[in-house]
Amino acid sequence: MALLKQSCYVAGRFSTGHLSLSPRSTPHVYTSCLTTAVKSSADREDRKKELQSQDGPALQDFISGELSEKSKWAEYRGNLKRQKGERLRLPPWLKTEIPIGKNYNRLKNTLRDLSLHTVCEEARCPNIGECWGGGEYATATATIMLMGDTCTRGCRFCSVKTARQPRPLDPDEPNNTAKAIAAWGLDYVVLTSVDRDDIADGGAEHFAKTVSSLKERNPNIVVECLTPDFRGDLAAVEKISLSGLDVYAHNVETVRELQRYVRDPRANFDQSLSVLKHAKKAKPSLLTKTSIMLGLGESDQQIINTMTELRAAGVDCLTLGQYMQPTKRHLKVEEYVPPEKFAYWEKVGNDMGFAYTASGPLVRSSYKAGEFFLKNLLKKRAEISAAEPEAS
C-alpha cells in the first residue's frame, strides 16, 4: 500500500478517469503542495496506521456519495472555495491510500523493457490504484501512452513535458505495444497519447496501426482510444474510428466557458465536440466517451449546459472528477467539490441518458472502463450494430 501524499489531476485526454495507468501520472506516489507534509518516516508510519485503523473509505464510497454520510467528513469546516490570494488545503475525502495491484511491478517492468510509456509514468496523477488494483477487472486492464512523453501543447492543467518538436515516432511502438499486451492477457486496454501537432495527421495512423495490431493478436480484447483532437482533422478521427477499436474517447476537459482559460489555445469545445460526433458518424456502433474536471471555477449551470451539449452530440459515457493542481506553475484549484455534489452530478448524467456516468473526487477519464464496458456495454454495442442498415 502506498500512502497518497499528493494528488495531481492532470487527466486531460490521458486522463479521467482511469482504471488505467491514468493519464499523466507516474508509478510513484507524488507529494503535492496541497497536502500536509510528512516530516519523517516515523510520522508517515504513524499516519498510515491511523488511516488503516479508521476503517477508511473505499473507492466506491467516493463514487456512491456515501462518504458524505460519515461524520468525520461531514464535520469538515475548511474552506472549499478559494479566496483571492489563498491556496486551498486538501479536504479529508481526498486523503486516502492508493492500493497497488499485485501485477503492478510485473507489468511496469514489461513496459520499460519494450520502451513503452504508461499514463502513470507521464501524468503525475494519483490514480495508481485504479491501474492495477481493485475491482473485478482491474488486473485485466491497462492504459498505455503512445507517441512518447512530450506534448506539443501546453494546457494549464497538465504537467506533461512540452516541446515544439518532440522526438520522432518509434515505428516499432505499435507492434511492441501489441506484443506486451498479448503477453499480459488483458481484457481491456486504453491507448492514449500526447498531442503531436508536429505530425501531419497528428499520429492518427500510429494509433490505427496499434489498434489493428492488437486486434490481430487478440480479436477479443476490448480497445479504447483516448485521443487528442488532431486539430479538428476529421479524416484522422475517422481513420482511428475504423481501425477496429471499441470505444472512442476524447476529453473536453472543462465547461465551454473555461476552455480558453484551461486548455491550450489550439483546443476548443466545438472542435472537441466535432471529434466525438464524427467518431460516432464514421462508425455508429462505437461508444463515445469524454471527461470533465470540476473545481476550476465553473458554475452549476455551466456544468448542466456542457452535459446537455455532450448528450445532444450522442456521447455515451461521461466521467467527472476533481481537478488537482500538479505544480505551483499550474492553475490553482478554485473549489474542492464535496462527494455528495459529485453523487448529484452522477444522477444528473444518468437522468440525461448517458449510458454510463462516473462522478467522484478521485474519478479519472478511464475510471472503471474495463469493468463497466465488459459488464454493461457489449450488449449496447450489439444493439446498435443490429440497428445499423445493411450495406448495399
From TrEMBL:
<feature type="binding site">
    <location>
        <position position="158"/>
    </location>
    <ligand>
        <name>[4Fe-4S] cluster 2</name>
    </ligand>
</feature>
<keyword id="KW-0411">Iron-sulfur</keyword>
<dbReference type="InterPro" id="IPR003698">
    <property type="entry name" value="Lipoyl_synth"/>
</dbReference>
<keyword id="KW-0949">S-adenosyl-L-methionine</keyword>
<keyword id="KW-0808">Transferase</keyword>
<keyword id="KW-0004">4Fe-4S</keyword>
<feature type="binding site">
    <location>
        <position position="155"/>
    </location>
    <ligand>
        <name>[4Fe-4S] cluster 2</name>
    </ligand>
</feature>
<feature type="binding site">
    <location>
        <position position="151"/>
    </location>
    <ligand>
        <name>[4Fe-4S] cluster 2</name>
    </ligand>
</feature>
<keyword id="KW-0479">Metal-binding</keyword>
<dbReference type="InterPro" id="IPR031691">
    <property type="entry name" value="LIAS_N"/>
</dbReference>
<dbReference type="InterPro" id="IPR013785">
    <property type="entry name" value="Aldolase_TIM"/>
</dbReference>
<feature type="domain" description="Radical SAM core">
    <location>
        <begin position="136"/>
        <end position="355"/>
    </location>
</feature>
<comment type="pathway">
    <text>Protein modification; protein lipoylation via endogenous pathway; protein N(6)-(lipoyl)lysine from octanoyl-[acyl-carrier-protein]: step 2/2.</text>
</comment>
<dbReference type="Pfam" id="PF04055">
    <property type="entry name" value="Radical_SAM"/>
</dbReference>
<dbReference type="InterPro" id="IPR007197">
    <property type="entry name" value="rSAM"/>
</dbReference>
<feature type="binding site">
    <location>
        <position position="366"/>
    </location>
    <ligand>
        <name>[4Fe-4S] cluster 1</name>
    </ligand>
</feature>
<dbReference type="Pfam" id="PF16881">
    <property type="entry name" value="LIAS_N"/>
</dbReference>
<feature type="binding site">
    <location>
        <position position="120"/>
    </location>
    <ligand>
        <name>[4Fe-4S] cluster 1</name>
    </ligand>
</feature>
<feature type="binding site">
    <location>
        <position position="131"/>
    </location>
    <ligand>
        <name>[4Fe-4S] cluster 1</name>
    </ligand>
</feature>
<dbReference type="InterPro" id="IPR058240">
    <property type="entry name" value="rSAM_sf"/>
</dbReference>
<dbReference type="InterPro" id="IPR006638">
    <property type="entry name" value="Elp3/MiaA/NifB-like_rSAM"/>
</dbReference>
<keyword id="KW-0408">Iron</keyword>
<protein>
    <recommendedName>
        <fullName>Lipoyl synthase, mitochondrial</fullName>
        <ecNumber>2.8.1.8</ecNumber>
    </recommendedName>
</protein>
<feature type="binding site">
    <location>
        <position position="125"/>
    </location>
    <ligand>
        <name>[4Fe-4S] cluster 1</name>
    </ligand>
</feature>
<keyword id="KW-0496">Mitochondrion</keyword>
<comment type="similarity">
    <text>Belongs to the radical SAM superfamily. Lipoyl synthase family.</text>
</comment>
